[in-house]
Write a structure and sequence with these properties.
By secondary structure, the protein is an alpha/beta fold. Helices cover 47% and strands 10% of the residues. The chain is globular.
Amino acid sequence: MTKNSISIGEGVSRLGRAFAICGGGLRRMSLATVVAMGTLANAGYATENETDAPTSAIVVTTVTEVLPILANADVVFLGEVHDNPAHHAVQAELVAQLRPSAVVWEMITQAQAASLSPELLHHGPALAEALDWAESGWPDFTLYQPIFAAGAKAVQFGALVPRAETRRAMEIGVATFFGPDAGLYGLTEPLPKADQTMREADQLANHCNAVPAEILPVLVDLQRLRDAELARGVTMALEQSMVAGSEQTAGPVIVITGNGHARRDRGAPVALQLARPDLAIASLGQSEDGQIAGAFDVELDAPALFRPDPCLAFQ
C-alpha cells in the first residue's frame, strides 16, 4: 500500500479521528444520522444523476430496444432512481420478459428474501407487511410490487445491509464486517488515489456538502460494501441455481438496485467481475431528462420528477 492509498479496513480509526477533529459539527450530526444519510444519498435519487461523469452506454428510447442488449447476459443489473415510477415500470416489464432464475434486491435483507413465496409475491398488501416496508425508508411499495410479481417464479435474494449493521461496519471497517470473502470482491484493496478523491467528492455533493471531510472515506467504504453485498447476492443466487438444477436456471440473475450500484465503472458489476470473471454482465442505467452518472451497457431515459431540494434543510 502506498502513502497515498487508503486502506478500506481503517473504518474505526478514521471514524474516531472524524469525531475528534470535527467536534461541534458532529454534535449536530449524530453517527446514526450520517448512516441514514449515506443510505439515502447513494440510493439513486436525482443528486446521483446530476454529474458530468462519462457514460459509454448505448442510448435507446424503448424497452424493446433494451431487451436484445441484455438478453445474453448471465447477470443483468436494472438501475433506477428509486422514486421514479417510469423506471419501475421498465424494470417490471424487463423482469417479465427476461424470466430470471433469481432476483437480487438492494431493498431487502437475505432473511426477508428467504421468507418469500410465489403466492406472497403476488399479494401486494401482505407482501408489504411481511417486508415491513412502511418502516423501511424506501419509496411507496406500489412502485415495487409489480416487479416482485413479475419475478414471482424466480428465487428471491436480499442484499440490504440494515442500518444498525451499517453502523457496525463503519466502526470495525467494511472488510472485517464483510467477512473472509472480502478480498474476492475487492474490499481489502484500496482505491487508486484519483478514484478515491473522485468518490469522496461525489459523497460530499450527495450529502449537501454537510458532512465533515473525515467522514467521506467511510461513506465511500460503505458504498463499496453495498456493491459487494449485491455481488455476493448474485453469487449466492448462481450457486443455488446450479444446485437446484431446475428449469428456472435458464434465465439470468436480475439485480434491482439504484443507478449508483448498477454502474459498470465502479458499482456492483465491478465487484462481481472480480469474484466471477467468467460471467457475462449487462447493466441498464435509467436516466432522468438525459442526466445520469457513470457507465452502463444501455441507457433509457424518463422525465425527471419534481423533488424539493433536500439540501435546504442544511441552510
